[in-house]
Design a protein that fits this description.
The chain has a single domain, classed as 2-Layer Sandwich (Nucleotidyltransferase, domain 5), CATH 3.30.420.40. Helices cover 17% and strands 31% of the residues. The chain has one helix at residues 48-65; strands at 4-10, 14-20, 26-33, 45-46, 73-79, 99-100. The strands form 2 sheets. A 4-stranded mixed sheet has the order 3-2-1-5, covered by helices on one side. Strands 4-6 form a two-stranded antiparallel sheet. The longest helix has 18 residues, at 48-65.
């Protein structure tokens, strides 16, 4: 069975998933933008659940486009958007508040 690397890029405006073969060539990819929220002047936030849902959707889509099974993924690389932070409730696993984006001026 051929093995692949799945790269997850969670950027400032979109989530992207790319599948690479053993030679580093892109086999398939998927990308989708998500909502940015500006509740006050200088504030920039993202809904953490939307980010997670969009990223999971892009993983599935990239695998489907390449006709690749999850069992064929040998490793996963993850990148994210600089200093953006989310606080999660350790008991529920839910975000306590929106992600505070690196562009936020607070």
């Amino acid at each position: 069975m051929e093995q692949y690397i799945l790269a997850l890029d969670q950027g400032t405006t979109s989530c992207r998933a790319l599948v690479f073969d053993k030679n580093g060539a892109i086999v398939s990819s998927a990308q989708k933008e998500f909502t940015q929220h500006f509740p006050k002047s200088g504030w920039v936030e993202h809904d953490a659940n939307e980010i997670w849902g969009t990223q999971a959707e892009m993983m599935k889509e990239a695998l489907q486009k390449g006709n690749i099974s999850a069992d064929s993924i040998a490793g996963i690389g993850i990148t994210n958007q600089r200093e953006t932070v989310v606080i999660w409730d350790k008991h529920t696993g839910e975000p306590i508040y929106n992600a505070i984006v690196w562009q936020d001026k607070r």
